[in-house]
Design goal:
- InterPro entries: AlkZ-like.
- Pfam families: AlkZ-like.
- This is Winged helix DNA-binding domain-containing protein.
- There is one protein chain.
- α1 crosses α12 and α13 (219-226) packs across α14.
- The chain has a domain at 265-369.
- It contains 19 helices and 13 strands.
- It has helices at residues 7-19, 32-39, 47-57, 64-72, 94-101, 103-110, 113-116, 120-134, 142-151, 158-170, 189-192, 202-214, 219-226, 230-240, 265-273, 283-286, 300-303, 346-351, 353-363; strands at residues 42-43, 76-82, 85-90, 140-141, 174-176, 185-188, 245-249, 252-256, 276-278, 314-317, 320-329, 333-340, 366-369.
- The protein has a five-stranded mixed β-sheet with strand order 9-10-11-12-13. A three-stranded antiparallel β-sheet has the order 1-3-2.
- The radius of gyration is 21 Å and the shape is globular.
- Helix content is 46%, strand content 17%.
- The chain is α+β, with helices and mostly antiparallel strands.
């Protein structure tokens, strides 16, 4: 027997899928760049997963090669604008977002320097060398930059080099460049990014766009995603003004973009009708401090095995995360294996064949469901 779900929980799921561009025709996002701008930022520890996440949300559904081209040509950029975590943004948003959201993580990271045997003078010397090496539009690999630092008297071991490069990406001195390289490649941020936005109130801009891309959300969801104290979150909510409003759903106070909640029951059903295969680290789970509306918390360990911070790809049915999936690829074909938390109906498995084919098209491969 099917388990009855609170209609307001189903509404929250539907609203979140619509806000995130995962319901066709709701968001006006044609390209991967549009989707990145609309989402504000998406987690990109796994670069391939992030590219698939953008493709799913773009009406044109660009393949992986097209999204790689967007990265290589600077329309979207991978860097660390929040929480010290790799994310993809529209290029013009990266400077202001990093300035607004990285102070806390940079301060905490700096406290670890003594344990790394790294002095502030070493970090400053490495920064001067790296800026000089990349000047004039040059793009260099991590090993090349570490070697240049050594030649200029700043010898860095692997952990020290990682700290310095993370610091400089959060500082927006450098950004990740060529995405097709097998090693990290960097460019000067001010030379790689041609256009920059400077919103009137960065926290207000962040809150209004975050809410529009993920609502309904709580204040705590914003604070966790942005890694901000609640005072700063409240400042952003106040600055956002009429771009956000509060609603009560399933006994919780949420923030939403105005006019988004009043959808019909038929629109709720339509938003939840198509099952989804979402990539690892997708914002449908990463974007919320509490995932309770779309995930039974007893299954969280199945998505993050060992609580190691690595989020597995997810199966979504009726807006609920009901399992994980994995893939095996050859030169011509990708095979997707489903790992549901409980049994899936035969009808649901048949319906999942379409998102499997969509994933194959993204990779430029034939696809089948194991």
């Amino acid at each position: 027997m099917a388990v009855s779900v609170d209609p307001e929980i189903r509404r929250i799921r539907a609203l979140r899928l619509r806000a995130q561009g995962l319901v066709p025709g709701v968001r006006d996002w044609r390209t991967a760049e549009d989707a990145a701008r609309g989402m504000l930022a998406i987690q990109a520890q796994d670069g391939a997963a992030a590219r698939f996440a953008l493709s799913l949300r773009a009406a044109d559904h660009p393949d992986d090669a097209a999204v790689l081209t967007d990265l290589a040509e600077g329309r979207i950029t991978r860097n660390r604008p929040a929480r010290g975590t790799l994310q993809i943004t529209a290029a013009e948003d990266l400077h202001w977002l990093s300035a607004a959201l990285t102070d806390r993580s940079r301060t905490e990271a700096a406290k670890r320097r003594p344990a790394l045997g790294l002095s502030d003078a070493m970090v400053d010397g490495a920064e001067r060398t790296i800026r000089a090496e990349l000047a004039g539009g040059k793009v260099l690999t991590r090993p090349q930059l570490v070697q240049a630092c050594a030649e200029n008297g700043v010898v860095l071991d692997n952990g020290q080099a990682g700290h310095v490069l993370r610091h400089l990406t959060e500082l927006m001195a450098i950004v990740f460049a060529d995405p097709a390289s097998k090693t990290d490649v960097f460019a000067l941020a001010d030379e790689w990014i041609a256009d920059r936005r400077e919103p009137d109130h960065a926290l207000g801009e962040m809150v209004s766009r975050f809410v529009a891309a993920r609502g309904p959300v709580t204040r705590q969801d914003i604070g966790k995603w942005a890694y901000l104290p609640m005072g700063a979150v409240d400042e952003g909510i106040t600055a956002a003004g009429r771009a956000v409003e509060t609603v009560e759903l399933a006994g919780t106070t949420y923030l939403v973009a105005p006019g988004t909640v009043d959808i019909t029951d038929a629109e709720v059903d339509e938003a939840l009708a198509r099952p989804l295969l979402l990539p690892g680290f997708d914002e449908y789970i990463i974007g919320y401090g509490s995932r309770a509306p779309q995930l039974d918390e007893q299954y969280l360990a199945r998505i993050i095995p060992g609580r190691n911070g690595v989020f597995k790809p997810m199966i979504v049915v009726d807006g609920e995360i009901v399992g994980t999936w994995s893939r095996k690829a050859t030169a011509k074909k990708v095979t997707v294996a489903l790992e549901p938390f409980t049994s899936l109906t035969a009808a649901t498995k048949r319906r999942l064949a379409e998102p499997v084919r969509d994933y194959g098209r993204f990779l430029g491969l034939g696809a089948e469901l194991a």
